[in-house]
Amino acid sequence: MVKERKIQIAPSMLAADFSRLGEEVRRVTEAGADLIHLDVMDGHFVPNLTMGPQLVKALRSYTELPFDVHLMLTHPQEYIDTFVDAGADLITIHVEVDGQLSKMMDGIRKRGVKVGLALRPQTATSEVEPYLADVDLVLPMSVEPGFGGQSFQMNTLDKIDRLRNLIDAQGLDVDIEVDGGINQKTAVLVGRSGATILVAGTAIFGSDELDRAINTLRELASSGE
Ligand code: DX5
Ligand code: ZN
User: Fold this and answer.
1) 129 Cα: distance to centroid of ligand 1 (angstroms)
2) Which among 22, 63, 2, 32 is positioned nearest to 207, based on CA atoms?
């Protein structure tokens, strides 16, 4: 019997129509999303470029949902304030970046924004474990960051299991987010392992009925079946 946890769905705007991103944010909001996931890439930490703070700010008026900003940047410290000013409610940085992680996480928290810590598929959970008590969210990436539409890497399930056990054993209130290759099949698996926030791009924006896609992912992840 799997303990039932509240599951939240965060559509990744990377899979939306970039020529009308504001409307797309409104559309997923009306369809019942819990958070808006915004992927920020610098062409260095990952081989792709996406959106900057000006775009995030421009989207702010299209929804009241929290902005979940995933920074795939080699030097996130230079941009934290800018993304807070642009309207981020949660900022996730990668454990693999250059610089002092604790200082960066403090910088995010001091601005009144939630803190997330992400790890690439090849990075061991031991890298983030020392920080669990200092974060609101941990994000074991289930694909190599940079692009949407990739297949879920199954080794992520063991990482989620381990993180869930550690978080529960320490009595912490930390979400486990999972990002990459989430669909109806993998939603069940990550829910069973203890993920609480599911990011999905292709599975949501590739569907004709956004509300049904969002609700189905939430239900499947909650059911543990
Ligand atoms: C990849 C991004 C993901 C991506 C997920 O670097 O962090 O948010 O958009 O896309 P799907 O759901 O299509 O795998
Ligand atoms: Zn992401």
Assistant:
1) 24
2) 32
- CB of 71 closer than 6 A to ligand 1? no
- Given a contact cutoff of 8 angstroms between Cβ atoms, the answer to whether 4 and 191 are in contact is no
Q: Which atom of ligand 1 is nearest to the CA of 201?
A: 12
pTM reported for the whole predicted model: 0.97
State in Å: Cα 146 to ligand 1 middle. Answer: 8
**Is pLDDT above 60 for 2?**
no
Residue-averaged pLDDT of the chain: 97
Q: What are the pLDDT digits (tens) for 3-16? A: 568 999 999 999 99
CB contact at 8 A, 184 and 215: no
DSSP string, 9-37: EEEBGGGS-GGGHHHHHHHHHHTT-S-EE
According to the model, what pLDDT value does residue 77 have? Answer: 96
Q: Establish whether residue 191 lines the binding site of ligand 1, counting it when its CB lies within 6 angstroms of any ligand atom.
A: no
Cα(197)–Cα(213) distance, rounded to whole angstroms? 15
Buried b (16+ CB within 10 A) or exposed e, 31-48: bebbbbbbbbbbeebbee
Average pLDDT in the 53-65 region?
98
Question: Ligand 2 (ion): which residues have CB within 5 A?
Answer: 39, 70, 179
Pocket flag, ligand 1, residue 16 (CB < 6 Å)? no
What is the atom index within ligand 1 of the atom nearest the CA of 142?
Answer: 14
Query: How many other β-carbons are positioned within 10 Å of the β-carbon of residue 85?
Result: 12
Yes or no: say if 46 and 72 are a contact pair by the CB < 8 Å rule.
yes
